[in-house]
Amino acid sequence: MILSKVRFSKKLFTKEFRKTKQWLTVDEHEELKNWLRKDRSYRTPSLK
User: Could you give the CA distance from residue 8 to residue 13 in angstroms, rounded to a whole number?
Assistant: First the structure.
């Protein structure tokens, strides 16, 4: 397997998250923000 482990980079994630504001409507951005608060699985440090 090529990727045995994927690390979560908070700095990179924050940078990419901020960039989404220019592509999403205000409502879509709020929905994404709320979804990320609710679903913490995106912070999982490894793939299984």
Answer: 8
Q: Is the pLDDT of residue 21 over 60?
A: yes
User: DSSP labels for 14-48?
Assistant: HHHHHHGGGTS-HHHHHHHHHHHHH-GGGG-SS--
pTM of the model: 0.47
Q: What is the pLDDT of residue 7?
A: 64
Q: Which residues lie closer than 8 Å to 19 by C-beta, 6 or more apart?
A: none
Contact 29, 21 (CB under 8 A): yes
Give dist(CA 25, CA 28) in Å, integer.
5
